[in-house]
């Protein structure tokens, strides 16, 4: 019977898994190579390598990395065969990455004579339908099933130029302005600051009661929108006489209006450009708006996937310059003016003025309505409230805000569901009564920034309710006649939760901008939203900027240049 002897076992004195290099025989060819553990998910390297093949006449396969000097295939810089988790385990002498180039991996030319080719010469001028035959659809036409390598379906209206569309800044950036700060939106979304209930200082104006008849309007009982001649003031912060009085008493360090503050608090949602003029006087900061700026109008479908645009065309006199095309009723500017008109008149029309109803008179009359005014005053009440932005009890950074109203009345408008920039909105006349949720969801998606600003304004004012009307064109091709289809009521805090509006984030943004301005010396600054990027920038500007003096100087300079 043959005897059996056990082979020599090389024990590892270190106690770790794997053989020990001290116990391996001298003749073992892998003795000086360290053991590198690896998992099954690690890449072990290429399964084939032709480094030892010489000659420059070899044909490389498509998509392979080829050495441009030797014509051989090589490893990329830093590639490892085993032990990918341990870079020091193995080292390969490889050539520079720049010596590699990618062989053309384009798909081959389609075979002549496709599926629907007729005769020998039918491949010229015919359409290739891929590997699958077209199927007849419900409209009597054919639906083409494209192959995986072919591009998607038919593009939409002016799809070819969407990537080239750029917006103009809301204010012309002068080269002499100094940029002090640049903040990306993703940094703004991480800010948080909890603010307590405000202190109400004074109230001014008169409010008329809301007409509840508009809550019962449906698409079958629509009511025409009527133009109402009323005066409503939207005075900027620095021109407000009440804010000037409060500033002289040192009531707060920062002063703003609810419209300006809502834009700043909802800045990460904004797409269109805007700007806020900031004036530092002593230890006080004023947030102002420019006359005729973006704060005086209402946007339409700002957050849609393809928002309305102001199309431009090459300038005939200067091909390198583009000028606005002839005006259309569905451009961004035209829709913005239309939405502003609708909001103002819906707010005027939806309150009861005659016969004399029980009005809500605040402590003092409207501060902007002078004794010489003859036109009737709109229903409007102003409340001046102070919010404390201090992080600790010892820190006091107060902001005084002028807010409007006890009930916020706004309106959404429908222009043409089939027009570019409609954002896939359903037809309100057919869906508003039966599928209101779908209409609301679409508006929350396409007008996220606008609805968020309205909600923040209502919360700042302490409004108990929001009334949002649904106003549509009487004819999609006529932007002068409108009808009221419905009105919705909601509580501002509940609507803010539906919109995912974070007041803590908004106050954090305000506090960050306030800290930047309070550190600056006295002067004038402007906070500008980039027209094409999610970025805001703070510029230092001359005191004469955005005033009549600057315009007069520019006009005088242009006249001097025009003189021979």
TrEMBL record:
Main subcellular location of this protein, as a coarse class: cytoplasm
Biological-process GO terms, alphabetical: cap-dependent translational initiation; formation of cytoplasmic translation initiation complex
Composition-biased stretches (Polar residues): 54-71, 126-140
GO (cellular component) term, any one: eukaryotic 48S preinitiation complex
Extent of Low complexity compositional bias: 113-125
UniProt keyword annotations, A-Z: Cytoplasm, Initiation factor, Protein biosynthesis, RNA-binding
Pfam families: eIF-3_zeta (PF05091)
Region ranges (Disordered): 53-82, 113-156, 297-328
Matching InterPro entries: eIF3d
Location(s) in or outside the cell: Cytoplasm
Bias-annotated ranges (Pro residues): 308-317
Molecular function as annotated in GO: mRNA cap binding; translation initiation factor activity
Stretches for region RNA gate: 294-308
Subunit note: Component of the eukaryotic translation initiation factor 3 (eIF-3) complex.
Functional description taken from the UniProt entry: mRNA cap-binding component of the eukaryotic translation initiation factor 3 (eIF-3) complex, which is involved in protein synthesis of a specialized repertoire of mRNAs and, together with other initiation factors, stimulates binding of mRNA and methionyl-tRNAi to the 40S ribosome. The eIF-3 complex specifically targets and initiates translation of a subset of mRNAs involved in cell proliferation. In the eIF-3 complex, eif3d specifically recognizes and binds the 7-methylguanosine cap of a subset of mRNAs.
Family recorded in the similarity comment: Belongs to the eIF-3 subunit D family.
Comment block on domains: The RNA gate region regulates mRNA cap recognition to prevent promiscuous mRNA-binding before assembly of eif3d into the full eukaryotic translation initiation factor 3 (eIF-3) complex.
The name this protein goes by in its record: Eukaryotic translation initiation factor 3 subunit D
Organism phylogeny: Eukaryota, Fungi, Dikarya, Basidiomycota, Agaricomycotina
């Amino acid at each position: 019977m043959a005897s059996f002897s056990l082979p020599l076992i090389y024990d590892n004195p270190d106690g770790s898994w794997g053989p020990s290099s001290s116990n391996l025989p001298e003749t073992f060819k892998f003795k000086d190579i360290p053991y590198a553990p690896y998992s099954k998910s690690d890449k072990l390297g290429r399964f084939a390598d032709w480094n030892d093949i010489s000659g420059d006449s070899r044909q490389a396969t498509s998509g392979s990395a080829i050495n441009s000097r030797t014509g051989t295939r090589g490893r990329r810089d830093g590639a490892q065969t085993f032990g990918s988790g341990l870079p020091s385990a193995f080292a390969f002498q490889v050539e520079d990455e720049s010596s590699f180039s990618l062989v053309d991996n384009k798909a081959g030319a389609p075979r002549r004579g496709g599926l629907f080719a007729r005769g020998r010469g039918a491949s010229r001028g015919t359409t290739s339908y891929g590997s699958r035959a077209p199927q007849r659809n419900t409209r009597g036409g054919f639906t083409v099933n494209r192959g995986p390598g072919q591009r998607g379906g038919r593009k939409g209206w002016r799809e070819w130029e969407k990537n080239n569309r750029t917006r103009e800044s809301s204010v012309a950036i002068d080269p002499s302005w100094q940029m002090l700060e640049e903040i990306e939106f993703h940094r703004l979304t991480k800010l948080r600051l909890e603010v307590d209930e405000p202190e109400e200082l004074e109230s001014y104006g008169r409010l008329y009661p809301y007409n509840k008849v508009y809550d019962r309007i449906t698409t079958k009982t629509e009511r025409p929108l009527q133009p109402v001649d009323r005066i409503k003031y939207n005075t900027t912060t620095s021109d407000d006489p009440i804010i000037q009085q409060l500033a002289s008493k040192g009531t707060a360090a920062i002063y703003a209006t609810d419209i300006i503050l809502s834009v700043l608090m909802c800045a990460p949602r904004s797409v269109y450009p805007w700007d806020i003029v900031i004036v530092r006087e002593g230890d006080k900061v004023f947030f102002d708006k420019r006359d005729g700026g973006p704060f005086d109008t209402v946007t339409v479908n700002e957050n849609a996937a393809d928002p309305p645009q102001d199309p431009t065309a090459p300038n005939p006199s200067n091909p390198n310059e583009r000028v606005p095309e002839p005006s259309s009723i569905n451009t961004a500017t035209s829709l913005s003016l239309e939405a502003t008109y609708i909001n103002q008149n819906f707010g005027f029309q939806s309150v009861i003025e005659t016969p004399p109803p029980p009005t809500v008179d605040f402590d003092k009359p409207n501060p902007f309505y002078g004794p010489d005014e003859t036109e009737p005053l709109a229903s409007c009440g102003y409340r001046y409230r102070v919010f404390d932005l201090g992080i600790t009890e010892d820190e006091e950074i107060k902001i005084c805000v002028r807010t409007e109203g006890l009930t916020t009345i706004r309106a959404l408008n429908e222009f043409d569901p089939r027009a570019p920039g409609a954002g896939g909105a359903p037809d309100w006349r057919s869906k508003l009564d039966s599928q209101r949720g779908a209409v609301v969801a679409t508006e929350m998606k396409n007008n996220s920034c606008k609805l968020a600003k309205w909600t923040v304004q209502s919360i700042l004012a302490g409004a108990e309710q929001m009334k949002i009307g649904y106003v549509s064109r009487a004819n999609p091709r006529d932007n002068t006649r409108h009808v009221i289809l419905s009105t919705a009521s909601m509580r501002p805090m509940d609507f803010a939760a539906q919109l995912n509006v974070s007041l803590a984030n908004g106050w954090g943004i305000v506090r960050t901008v306030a800290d930047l301005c309070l550190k600056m010396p006295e002067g004038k600054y402007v906070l500008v939203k980039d027209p094409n990027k999610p970025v805001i920038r703070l510029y230092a500007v001359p005191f004469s900027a955005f005033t009549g003096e600057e315009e007069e100087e520019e006009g005088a300079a242009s006249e001097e240049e025009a003189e021979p």
